[in-house]
Request: fold
Amino acid sequence: MSDQYVLETQNLVKEFKGFVAVDDVNLKIQKGHIHALIGPNGAGKTTVFNLLTKFLIPTRGQILLKGEDITPLKSAAIARKGMVRSFQISAVFPHMTALENIRVALQSFEGNSFSFWKSGASLNRLNARSMELLESVGLTEFANTTTVELAYGRKRALELATTLAMEPEILLLDEPTQGMGTEDVDRVVELVRKAAQGRTVLMVEHNLGVVSKLCDRITVLAQGAVLTEGDYETVSADPRVREVYMGAGSSGERGTDAEVEAAQ
Amino acid sequence: MSQIDIQSDIQQTILKQQKIDSRRKWILNGVLLVLLLLAPFVMYPVFLMKILCFALFAVAFNLLFGFTGLLSFGHAAFLATGGYTTGYLLSNFSGLTTEMGVIAGTLMATVLGLGFALLSIRRQGIYFAMVTLALAQLVFFFFVQASFTGGEDGMHGVPRGELFGLINLEDNLNLYYVVLTVFLGCYLLVQRIVSSPYGHVLKAIKQNEPRAISLGYKVDRYKILAFVMSAALAGLAGSMKSVVFELASLNDAHWHMSGEVILMTLIGGMGTLLGPVLGATLVVNIEYQLGQGPLRDWVDPILGGIFVITVLAFRSGIVGEVQKFVRKNMG
Reply:
């Protein structure tokens, strides 16, 4: 069964001084799926991401990547094992050009990253591959632009391209459409769909429209625990899911309530 | 035009830009070189050497602060360790030639730097600064207590000796050109480091550390290497300083010195190559000029004022602001 599930958590728990942020979560992510992690604010979605990539240390429980226990590994080692994450807040290197952003990711596998005596020109042979990746997210013309000057949607696209440069087997996307206008959202949906070919994707997403279009399977978190799991129809029909979303009541959630209803 | 053509077009543009940048860099290097070669005919060589030693110290500090994003508040420890080691060896072992003493001083500072780095590198921001300060204070108290340093009086009469046993360094002009060569070598080395593949990773770590980690970089190792190289160059600056002045003094180990190098770097422009050199030149000159005149007792408040103005009004420092201006107005 480990063949089927590329990523599993077993009884994953994270406690912060008496407060249980992630409570006994068992995730099973099937190979090739786009799997969504949804839930109201404060449900622990991002915390789960941080645990999976070891930006936080789990209090208890295990994380299995392709059947191998990766719980003791550090963040950088996990990235090298093929599980690469993006961040909720656009994570780019602001004072590098778009091309340099991608090159840094490609360089990670070059084995020259400690070569402080080598000329920077030795990185130019990564340019062609970087341009291909920029092309794949529609940023060709911005290759030589300093990233800080790019619009928000383009920064997110660049971040995705940088993540893809790592050739990850598993892609963890933390709210890829957060803070975007409708047009950008549609573009990102297409990008994620394209990126997901031959890969497994686990994404945190608030926009249920996006989830319904993209995801094969959905896990709903509430107060740190798994509330339910299934495909979009099952989950959106579940009265408990509607209840936690309604009950949350924050302004950020109302939009998604409307979408739950619209989708039904 | 097909997509492939556009791609290779942009790649060509980028390569051309790199060439222009590197030509600019070498023109600047050339001008700097000519000025420094001629300088001792206009100014007192020992004063110039003092500037070069502090400039190297600031360049070393900037490698860590400006290019890696780590604010060490303990760099005086490396300057002093280099100085005392070289001073002690040259004073007590007459068989040693000057360059051996300097190399030994540099090595000692390198080892100390590794120790500091291993103990501090996991701390972030202000905590990192505090740990380095605390460690540097330990080193300071060691130098106060140890008998070979001469305590508060300092270590006097360090012989300048002869380079490779051949060139007499008692001659100021000879020594000037030796110090200049070492300085230029280190300057070019740092220039190389920051533009190397390694330098690109440092840039990434400085700009967004969590992202660098998520791209598979073990950032601590990169930071440790930067710290050690910075400490080594700072130690080299201290070693040469003790040869130039024939003196290793407790001032170099004092936390005041750690603060001064921050000031030099900020005034000149952190994260630029020329900034710390300019900053060191300015600070050493201001201290000297004011120290001569009626404002003798006001040197520290005046430097403090300059520091405040720099931080409030032009945060990128002189060179940084000039770079911004050039970029804005000349494409």
Summary: Confidence is low (pLDDT under 50) at residues 248-264 of chain A.
